[in-house]
Amino acid sequence: MSSRPTARPGGRSARVQQSVHQAVRDLEAEVGRDALTVPLIAARAGVTPSTVYRRWGDLRELLSDVAVERLRPDAPPADHGSLRADLEAWTQQFAEEMASTAGRTYVRDALLGDPEQGNAGRCSDYAAEQLTALGVRAAGRGEAVPAVETLLDVVVAPLMYRILFRPSDLSAAYTDGLVAAALDRTHPRPAAKS
Predict the structure, then answer these.
(1) Residues 146 and 110 in one domain
(2) Alpha carbons 167 and 16: distance in angstroms, whole number
(3) What angle do CA 159, 163, 169 make, to 5 degrees?
(4) Which one of 19, 62, 78, 149 is most buried, counting C-beta atoms within 10 A?
């Protein structure tokens, strides 16, 4: 069981996390993923292997933690003028990033080294935060906004399934269809007259 905190640490703990994460990224680029070991990473980071084991438990959990940090968005979602345009752009970008070789590796790492599902929760929180930002902006423009959970269920969940298991069709038409389905829940179409 991991004793890793879910919040970002401060002070020495933050410096250790930063140096170990950087060591993982550097070594992965230099020697390849298959050559990574806790002692090699610890030596590069300037800490003892016991520090790594105490904090992360094993290599898989460390790679999971690094992956979650790599999946963290580095900017708020772009403003394209309407909720539909914002969601379509965000969903297309999300699909491109997550479906890339690196993205799929990070997602798998985040899940594989996550016995308590804390990293999966953090990844889900990142998406929810981005979708919330889009919703707040749209509500400020007077637009009706689906609940974040609806967007997660109707847009993100099927997209992640496709990315991980059936990545053959991640076109703009597919992602725009997910957005349309979510927005249709907010603005149902009138029933056809008979």
Answers:
(1) yes
(2) 36
(3) 80
(4) 62
